[in-house]
Amino acid sequence: MKDFTIASKVIFDTSLREYFSQSPYQRAMIVADPMMVQLGFVDQISAQFHQTDKAFLLFDAITPDPTVETIGEGVWQMNQFQPDCLIAIGGGSAIDAAKGMILANYKLSATYQKPAFIAIPSTSGTGSEVTSFTVITNGNDKKPYVDQRLVPEVAILDVDLVKTVPAKITADTGMDVLTHALEAYVSTNASTFTDALAEKTVQLVFENLIEVFKQPDNLSARQKMHEASALAGMAFTNSSLGINHSLAHAIGGIHHLPHGRINALLLPAVIAYNAQSENGQKYCRLAKLLGLPAATTEEGTANLILAIELLNEALEMEKSFSCFGISESVYQQVGDTIAAFALQDDCTKTNPRAVTAEALKEIYLSLYTRN
Hints:
Blueprint: E1 9-12, H1 16-20, E2 27-32, H2 34-38, H3 41-50, E3 55-59, H4 68-81, E4 85-90, H5 92-108, E5 116-121, E6 133-138, E7 141-146, E8 154-157, H6 167-186, H7 192-214, H8 219-239, H9 243-255, H10 259-274, H11 282-289, H12 297-314, H13 328-333, H14 335-344, H15 357-366
Parallel strand pairs: 1-8, 2-3, 2-4, 4-5, 5-8
Antiparallel strand pairs: 6-7
Helix pairs in contact: 4-5, 6-7, 6-8, 6-10, 7-8, 9-10, 9-14, 10-12, 11-12, 14-15
């Protein structure tokens, strides 16, 4: 039985001050990236609580790829404070950490009553503000968890938070959005509903990502990318993902590289692999949607891959993993480990083409050097 759920109320064209000035909550805990504190966005929220003598707690010990240790500290503070509202503001790591805290509490008590959960993304990439996914790091293992109870009740898309995002991060997160959409589109759990969201996302990315990368003050294009991120999140939280993310999680956990750049580098090779599947024929449909030559399925898929490679080039993405300074011996040495991690990743379950550890390793090894 398939189903489709959009559980989050999405707020857009509204400032943080405006939204929280009407907040009914009495005890708010904010989980925030330190940068959100430095830039004053946390103050915009906390001021609304201070003005009405409501209780407020800030937890900003967030680092990229939140660890079980960070989440453990957050759980302790959360349970001491007992908030009626949990607000996550920042990139995917802040939202993932807040979700990890909620998940940990459910594991501690099956009858746990979570506070109202509000997510405010500061990047246009993960879509975590509307998804049931979180990724937690334990040593070298980056593991995704999926639980419908992790979906925020409210997602606030305030373009002010992303208008100064550096070009490199804009590129990273934008390619993560595209990867989410493409994997949701060909997932074995894809449906008419997720297809509609994925198709619109792909169009928005190709129409706006290069513009935002080159003209960062184009707020209209930034708003479109912010919306595309949420649309892709709605798609993949219903359909799940595939081996692009399985490999990215494993590679990121071992080589500690930016998630979006890993996805961008993997994407052409993964599409070529997945094209040899029933759902892989849908790549041609996307090529036609983008106005690319697609007289045959093979031509459409090849031109979609070429368009992504050209997009990567325009975004100044690395062409191979050797560009990150990883020695070839180290790269090859961990191939079996990465393949094993990726094979066990939950995202692999909905990949459109069956995979083996050997096939995953082959994709990984093929990307050390490329022309």
